[in-house]
């Protein structure tokens, strides 16, 4: 008799708090929202890294171009090259763009 009562109570508890729990209806939605959130974060991260790589590459090219021009100006100022040489080399650098 005692085991029958325990079995009935355990079954009632199981049905009420495990099978019919509100979480049984909510957790699939939470899992779907979480999956979508993680997917969006990964995609945004990949796009951010790609954009950063592209813009950094362009910035590096501009820095190199500016440094070549600065070197030419410095050499002209020191008298290492003539005005003709300066213009010729500056034109060569401008044509590379």
Q: Care to count the β-strands? A: 0
Put simply, the count of helices is 3
Q: How is the main sheet built? A: none
The total tally of domains equals: 1
Quick overview:
Helices cover 91% and strands 0% of the residues.
What does this molecule look like?
With 97 residues, the chain is mainly α. The protein has one domain (2-96). The protein has helices at 2-19, 23-78, 83-96.
Characteristic key phrases:
mainly alpha; rod-shaped; 0% strand; 3 helices; single chain; 91% helix; 97 residues
Task: Summarize the SSE layout with pairings.
Blueprint: H1 2-19, H2 23-78, H3 83-96
Helix pairs in contact: 2-3
